[in-house]
Every structure is written in C-alpha cells, then in structure tokens.
Amino acid sequence: MRHPLLLAAFAGCAISTLSGCMGNNSNAEVAEAMKTVNAVDGTEMSNVMLTVADPNEAVAYFSRTAQESPDRIDIRRGLAKSLVRADKPTQAVKVWQEVLAMPGATEDDKVSLADAQIRSNDWAGAKATLNSVPPTVETYDRYRLAAMIADSEKKWKKADSFYETAAGLTTTPSGIYNNWGFSKLTRGDAAGAEKLFKEALSYDPDRFTTKNNLVLARASQGKYDLPVIEMTQGERAQLLYTAGLAAVKRGDVNMGKTLLQDAIDTNPQYFAQADRALKALDAGTPATIKG
C-alpha cells in the first residue's frame, strides 16, 4: 500500500496530466511524470527493505529488482547490504565488486566491500581494498575497519589510534568502545578493557554483550562482585554465571562455586546452566565446564 504522501503526489500528477492533455502535452511527459512517482515509491520500498524487513526477504526483493533494472547501482548496493544482513558475506563480496565496476561507484562502496571481506574472513583482501581508499576519506566505517585489521595483525598502537578516531566520528560510539575494550581484553589489558566497556555502557546501558564483557574484564583482575550497572534479574543470573566461570578458570574454585550458587538463587528457572556447572564442580570435574 502506498504512503499517503505518495498518493497525494500521484493525485497531483493526475491533475497535472489532465491539465496537460487540455494543453496538448505529449504522452512522453505523462510517462515521465509516472516514472518519477514510481521512483519515489521504489526508494521508500528500498529503505524499508534495508531497515525493518526480514533480511532474506530483502535479498529476494533486491535480487528480483536488480534483474529487472540491471543498470541501477542503488539496487545493487541494496542487494549487497541485504546479503550482509542475511549473514551471507561471501555473496555480498561478489555483489560489491559488481557495484565497483558500475558507473557511479564511490569510495564508500570500497569501504563496504572491505567490510564484507572481513566478514567472510578475507583479511588480506580487506586490507588491500581499504588501502585503495584515498586517505582523504575519513569516515567512521573506514577507521572502524582499519582498527579491526590492525588488531588482526597485532599492531596495537595503530589499532588504538584507529579506534579512538572512529569513536570521535560517530554520535553512537557504544559499539566501537565495546570492540576496543574486547581488543584490550584479548591483549591482556583487563584494566584498560574495563574502562572502555564502562564507556560503552554510558552510551548504551542496555547492551548485554558489553555488560558481559565488563564482568569478564573485572573477573580477569579478581574483581568478582558485579559492577553497578542496569540489569534485569535474568541478566544478573547470566552475569553471575560468567563471573563464576571466570573465577574457576583463574583457579578460584570456591569463589566460582559461590557465584554459580548466586546465579541459581537469582533465577533458578531461567538459568539452569549454573546448576549444571555447580554440579560438575561438586563432582570434581571442572574441565567439563564450558563458558
């Protein structure tokens, strides 16, 4: 169903067409007016498919439309983005390469190709693609990907510089601070990671992945009490479970048992994993615990 504004636009064109017929306007002008209305309607549909539609439905829509209009670069971009959303990065890489071969391709399209290459685990290809983007292109996505590539090569100073630059180029830096914190955690800098996870939560206090990472960073330092952050009862149980497993892995088995019991007491129906882990510890088989 068309948007009311589009219906109004269509009605306006109809009135204009009637007036044009009275003035002996050509059929070509009428066709052009209709083409404009359909283009606006199509743009709205594309936006819906790229945001709220099911990813696989979006792939089907853009695939079909790309066959009908093979010269439309915006549709090809939509297909590539939808393939990424549908967790099909290898196919997305091929489509982005097709986009780059079309008239009207931009440097941002290269950045999007690099993103898809990283998602398909082609780090060398992603690096080569990103290096082909002029340094004058200073966008959030460009620096976010550069940070990830530097991380993969263990070039920590470069990674930190890129993460910091990326954080300054977006109004919603929670995700980049979380990624930066995880990078710090994998390097063994748990204290630095803790600060970054807290920074991430200051922008998005509902992101559970960051909450879990924060608990891991604190537990890596022997700080097993839960941080003062917003959490539901279910999240509290999961975070206590995370802290308990981390304690066991650090050799603090008794503390781990206490935390797992706390997880059970917090939400016994919702969180059965803690009960299984505690029973494994009591049976003397901590190696069976996974987390």
SS-based class: mainly alpha
Globally, the shape reads elongated
Helix content: over 70%
Euclidean distance between termini CA atoms: 48 Å
What is the C-alpha radius of gyration, as a whole number of Å?
A: 26 Å
Largest sheet: none
The CATH class assignment of the domain at 1-6 and 41-105 is: Mainly Alpha
Mean pLDDT: 86
How large is the count of helical segments? 15
- CATH-scheme architecture of the domain at 1-6 and 41-105: Alpha Horseshoe
**What is the β-strand count?**
0
CATH topology of the domain at 1-6 and 41-105: Serine Threonine Protein Phosphatase 5, Tetratricopeptide repeat
Low-confidence stretches: 1-24, 33-40
Keywords: TPR repeat
Organism: Thioclava dalianensis
Protein name: Lipoprotein
TPR repeats: 174-207
Could you walk me through the main structural features you see in this protein, from its secondary elements to its overall organization?
- By secondary structure, this protein is mainly α.
- It has helices spanning 4-22, 27-51, 55-68, 73-85, 89-100, 107-119, 123-131, 140-152, 156-167, 174-187, 190-203, 208-219, 233-249, 253-266, 272-282.
- The protein has a domain at 1-6 and 41-105: Alpha Horseshoe (Serine Threonine Protein Phosphatase 5, Tetratricopeptide repeat).
- 73% of the residues lie in helices and 0% in strands.
- Helix 7 packs across helix 8.
- 34% of the residues are buried.
- It comes from Thioclava dalianensis.
- This is Lipoprotein.
- Keywords: TPR repeat.
- TPR repeats lie at residues 174-207.
